[in-house]
TrEMBL record:
CDD domains: PcpA_C_like (cd08347). Residues 5-130, 152-271 form the VOC domain. The lineage of its organism: Bacteria, Pseudomonadati, Pseudomonadota, Alphaproteobacteria, Hyphomicrobiales. It comes from Microvirga terrestris. InterPro entries: Extradiol_RC_dioxygenase, Glyas_Bleomycin-R_OHBP_Dase, Glyas_Fos-R_dOase_dom, VOC_core. GO terms for molecular function: dioxygenase activity. This is Ring-cleaving dioxygenase. Keywords: Dioxygenase, Oxidoreductase.
Length: 309
């Protein structure tokens, strides 16, 4: 089931300008869409991803200019991981030192090398060394040779009281399988190239998380199309007693949302129609894009949004 896996991760950041600079210049991702939060059009919604914005490469942010810091804890996504070529962690360690990025040392998890770091607004991130990832296409930016560039998302680590029911949703509805266990972490995987891994850490008795700057707002899983999504919605209701929202048109995908048993907000997003729906591939991210229902308010919206450069 190659079309399954994570579609995107959405997090909350501080000021938009610093968010854009960090993900495009420091990490070398492509800004694939510049739009607003459809439910709160005074706030940007910035999408970062690979050269074409493939599902599984996308990390998005709602940047809030005056955000209070969030706290990781039970019922939150603890970490979001990117894929890099296995031999590139040394390059990234050096780059983090040079760019003043808060980072840890290289550690082993499930026999993979992992380098943890944080963005300027406290989002917990990591780079995972992946064999042969250097042969995959990369987005080019100054200072990051293609052989070391990030190749999309690897996955997320979810922190929940008891991960069993969350894991069942992954395997029964989203096409994941249990792949390995290490301490209190169970790893679930799909065959997708990107966004293929979810680690569930069960931590009974920890403090609950608090949403704020640096917090992941939700994790979106892939559905091939509307029919695939409808099948998942039906299964969630009939087998798991979980109701989703009605489908919302997000212009670049169509989504439903629900809170999984561990308390984390999940989304199911279609692969269709993708980020080239309203601008050419070579122009992705160049202009502020608004959904049709907000176009008549463009002047007001543009005047209120913060400067990006
Ligand atoms: Zn989303």
């Amino acid at each position: 089931m190659r079309h399954h896996g994570i579609h995107h991760v959405t997090a909350i950041a501080g000021p938009a300008r610093g968010n854009l600079d960090f993900y495009t210049r420091v990490l070398g991702l492509r800004l694939v869409k510049k739009t607003v939060n459809f439910d709160d059009p005074g706030t940007y919604h910035l999408y970062f991803g690979d050269s074409l914005g493939h599902p599984g490469s996308i990390l998005t942010f709602f940047p809030w200019e005056h955000v209070a810091p969030g706290r990781n804890g039970v019922g939150t996504t603890q970490e979001t991981a990117f894929r890099v070529p296995e031999g590139s962690l040394g390059f990234w360690m050096h780059r983090f030192i040079e760019q003043g990025v808060e980072h840890g040392s290289v550690e082993k998890r499930f026999s993979q090398s992992v380098l943890t770091f944080k963005d300027p607004h406290g989002t917990s991130l990591s780079l995972v060394g992946i064999p042969n990832a250097e042969t995959e296409e990369a987005w080019n930016v100054d200072g990051i040779p293609a052989e070391h560039a990030i190749r999309g998302l690897e996955g997320v680590t979810l922190l929940v009281e008891n991960g069993e029911r969350t894991g069942t949703i992954l395997t029964d509805v989203f096409g994941f399988r249990e792949a390995a266990r290490e301490g209190s972490v169970v790893r679930y995987r799909t065959d997708a190239l990107m966004g293929s891994t979810v680690d569930i850490r069960s931590v009974g008795g920890f403090l609950p998380g608090r949403m704020g700057g640096g917090s992941v707002h939700h994790v979106a899983f892939r559905a091939k199309d509307d029919a695939d999504q409808a099948g998942m919605v039906k299964k969630l209701a009939e087998t798991h007693g979980l109701q989703t929202t009605e489908q919302k048109d997000r212009n670049y995908f169509r989504s439903v949302y629900f809170r999984e048993p561990g308390g984390i907000l999940f989304e199911i997003a279609t692969d269709e129609p993708g980020f080239a729906a309203d601008e050419a591939q070579e122009r992705l991210g160049a202009e502020l894009k608004l959904p049709a229902f907000l176009e008549s308010r463009r002047g007001d919206i543009e005047a209120r949004l913060p400067e990006l450069a």
